[in-house]
Design a protein that fits this description.
The protein has 575 residues and is an alpha+beta fold. The chain has 13 helices and 30 strands. A hairpin with a 2-residue loop joins strand 9 and strand 10. Pfam families: SBP_bac_5.
Length: 575
C-alpha cells in the first residue's frame, strides 16, 4: 500500500503511502544527481552505519512529524499517511505495511524482499493447475501485546478485512488479497496455508502487514483508531509508554514482551510540530534530526553545531494529484489541460533551487527512474499555456469576458491546496498556480496547516495538491491501487484495464510483470489524467553527530531508520 506524503513532509509493499512534496546548497556539499537504470544506488544511501558493539547502550532519540494521528489505522484511507507509518513502525512492526519492514517481510536497500523471521520464519509457494498454495511458518514466539498469539487467526482476519468484499470497510486497496480463496491452519495454528483463485506475484504482496484479530468489524476498522493508538493490538521492539494528546507527543520504551533483537535505545519520543518549528527545535537540541529538503530550511539549518548532513534519494513520485470527483475536475479535458499546462522543469527548479540536486523529468508514479523496470509514461509531449488552451478549446471551452476558459457558462475554476508554512512549498504551489492561470484557468490557493494533511487528503477534501506517494521496488501493488477502477480513489478506469491488472498479478517473472504494469500505467495516464509525476527529489537530513543507523535508506526504510533495534548513539555521544 502506497502512503500519502507531502512535498515537504516525509514510503511500502502491500500499500503505498501518500506523501506531500514540501538539502545541500551551493556553498555546502558537492552537487548530487538522481541515478538512472544501471546507476550506483549506493550513492543514494547515508545512514552512518555502526555495529551495536560500537554504540552506547541506552539513550533517547527525539524526532518530529507533521501530524500524530488523528487516526492510527494505517490500513485505512484516513490513517494512510507517511507520518502515521513513521510513528507506528517502532511499536507495531507486525502491522506496518511500509518502509523496509512489516509483518511477514523485510526489504534490503535495493528493495529485494525476504521473510521477516520475527514473524514469518519461511514463506513458500507452489503453483499447480493454475492455482497457488502458499505455506507460511509463523514464529512460535510471535504474539500481540495483549497476549493473543500471532497465528492463523491473525492471517485469516488480515485477509478478511483487506480483501475488499465488504465495501463498508474503508481500505485503501485490496491488492493481492482479492485473489485469496482461503486461509487455513496447516499442521497447527502456527502453520498457515493460503490458497488463491489465481497465482499471486510477488509473494510480498500478501501479509506485508498484519491485523490483530480483534480488529474485525467495519466500525472498529474505520473509526476504532480515531484518537486511540490501541497499544494492546500492536507488536514490535518498542511499546507506547505515553500518548499525550495535549502536548502532541508519543513516548516509546523497549517492549518487555518483544521476542526479537532488543533495541539499543531506552526511549524514542515523537513530537508533532509544524515544519518551521522543527528548525529551531533541531538547532536547540530538542529533536535529533530534521529534513533539509528545501533551500529555506537548508540555509537555516546549515552551520548547526555538531550536526551532519546526510543526503540520498527520496522514494517519492508525484506533484500532480487531481481529485477527479470534484465538480471542477470531472471533465477529463480539464484534467488533460492541467497536465498540458504544467512546466515540470520550472516547478522542479523552484522546488530544488540551491539544493545541488538535479534530475530529469520522471514519468511514472510506480517506479523510480533507477529501476530496471522503469519507463517514462507521462502522457503529454507538447506542453505550455497555448497547448493547454487548445485542449480546452477542442473540448468546447471558450474564454469568457474575464479571459477564463468556460463551457456552458461554467468557468474552469478550482484551488490548489498547500500544506504547512515552508516558503519553498508555497512558492512551488504558486508557480503551478501561475502556469495554470496562464492557460486560462481560475486557480486559487487553499492554505492548510501541515497537521491537516492526513485528514484533508485522506477524506479527499481538495481539488489539486502537489503531493504524491512513496515508491516501492515493484509496481504490482501500485498498479492496482492507482489504476484499477474499483480501487483507485478517483474511480477512474475501465473493464479492459482492470482485466490487464488482474492478469499481470499472475506473472511470476519480475521483469515481464513490471513491464505489463508499466503499460497499464501508460494507457491509464493517456486516457484519464488523474495523477502525474513532476518530481522525485532528494532526501536530505540534518542529524546530530553521533546518531548511528539513521538517514536516507532507500527501500530499507522510508522513515530514515533502517532498523529500529539498532538506532542509537555512537560511544560517547549518548543523549
Amino acid at each position: 500500500m502506497k502512503k500519502y506524503t507531502t512535498i515537504g513532509g516525509v514510503a511500502l509493499a502491500a500499500t503505498l503511502m501518500l506523501t506531500a512534496c514540501g538539502g545541500g546548497t551551493p556553498s555546502g556539499p558537492a552537487s548530487q544527481k538522481a541515478e538512472e537504470a544501471g546507476g550506483d544506488i549506493s550513492k543514494l544511501i547515508s545512514v552512518n552505519a555502526k555495529e551495536t558493539k560500537d554504540m552506547d547502550q541506552g539513550g533517547t532519540v527525539t524526532l518530529a512529524v507533521g501530524s500524530i494521528g488523528p487516526d492510527f489505522n494505517g490500513f485505512s484511507n484516513v490513517g494512510n499517511s507517511a507520518d502515521t507509518s513513521a510513528v507506528l513502525t517502532p511499536v507495531n512492526t507486525a502491522a506496518i505495511s511500509s518502509g523496509g519492514i512489516g509483518g511477514c517481510w523485510k526489504l534490503d536497500f535495493n528493495g529485494k524482499a525476504e521473510p521477516n523471521k520475527d514473524f514469518c520464519e519461511s514463506v513458500t509457494s507452489e503453483v499447480k493447475d493454475g492455482k497457488q498454495t502458499i505455506t507460511i511458518k509463523v514464529n512460535d514466539k510471535a504474539t500481540w501485546n495483549d497476549g493473543t498469539p500471532i497465528d492463523v487467526k491473525t492471517f485469516e482476519n488480515t485477509w478478511k478485512m483487506l480483501r475488499g468484499e465488504d465495501k463498508s470497510i474503508d481500505i485503501v486497496t485490496a491488492g493481492a488479497y482479492a485473489f485469496v480463496d482461503s486461509v487455513k491452519a496447516g499442521a497447527n495454528d502456527k502453520e498457515v496455508i493460503v490458497t488463491t483463485t489465481q497465482p499471486v506475484f510477488p509473494l510480498e504482496g500478501l501479509f506485508f502487514g498484519l491485523i490483530h484479530p480483534a480488529v474485525n468489524t467495519p466500525e472498529i476498522f474505520n473509526t476504532g483508531f480515531a484518537g486511540n493508538m490501541h497499544p494492546e493490538w500492536m507488536a514490535g521492539p518498542f511499546k507506547v509508554e505515553n500518548y499525550d494528546t495535549t502536548a502532541k507527543t508519543v513516548t516509546m520504551v523497549p517492549n518487555d514482551k518483544w521476542w526479537g533483537q532488543k533495541p539499543v535505545l531506552d526511549k524514542v519520543i515523537w513530537r508533532q510540530m509544524e515544519p518551521s518549528a522543527t528548525i529551531a527545535a533541531f538547532k536547540n537540541g530538542e529533536i535529533d534530526a530534521t529534513s533539509g529538503r528545501t533551500l529555506g530550511r537548508y540555509k537555516q539549518l546549515e552551520g548547526t553545531k555538531d550536526a551532519d548532513v546526510r543526503r540520498g534519494q527520496r522514494l517519492f513520485a508525484g506533484g500532480l494529484n487531481l481529485n477527479a470527483k470534484r465538480p471542477a475536475l470531472t471533465d477529463v479535458a480539464v484534467r488533460k489541460a492541467i497536465f498540458t499546462a504544467v512546466d515540470r522543469k520550472a516547478i522542479r527548479d523552484v522546488r530544488f533551487n540551491g539544493l545541488n540536486w538535479s534530475e530529469e523529468s520522471s514519468g511514472s508514479m510506480m517506479l523510480m527512474p533507477f529501476s530496471e523496470y522503469y519507463q517514462d509514461n507521462y502522457p503529454v509531449k507538447e506542453s505550455g499555456a497555448e497547448a493547454a488552451k487548445k485542449v480546452l478549446t477542442d473540448a468546447g471551452y471558450t474564454a469568457n469576458d474575464k479571459g477564463i476558459m468556460a463551457k456552458d457558462g461554467v468557468p474552469v475554476s478550482f484551488k490548489i491546496t498547500n500544506f504547512g508554512d515552508d516558503p519553498t512549498a508555497a512558492a512551488t504551489s504558486q508557480t503551478l498556480q501561475k502556469q495554470l492561470q496562464a492557460a486560462g484557468m481560475d486557480v486559487g490557493i487553499d492554505q492548510r496547516g501541515d497537521a491537516d494533511f492526513g485528514k484533508v487528503v485522506g477524506s479527499r477534501e481538495f481539488d489539486v495538491t502537489i503531493s504524491g506517494y512513496t515508491v516501492g521496488p515493484d509496481a504490482t501493488d501500485a498498479v492496482k491501487q492507482y489504476y484499477d477502477s474499483t480501487t483507485n480513489e478517483n474511480g477512474l478506469g475501465d473493464a479492459e484495464l482492470d482485466a490487464e491488472i488482474k492478469r499481470l498479478a499472475t506473472i511470476a517473472d519480475d521483469t515481464e510483470r513490471n513491464k505489463a504494469a508499466m503499460e497499464v500505467e501508460k494507457k491509464h495516464m493517456e486516457k484519464y489524467f488523474s495523477m502525474g509525476t513532476v518530481m522525485n527529489g532528494p532526501e536530505i537530513q540534518f542529524v546530530h553527530k553521533g546518531l548511528a543507523n539513521y538517514g536516507p535508506s532507500l527501500f530499507k526504510s522510508l522513515s530514515n531508520v533502517p532498523d529500529w533495534t539498532t538506532l542509537g548513539w555512537e560511544k560517547g555521544a549518548k543523549k
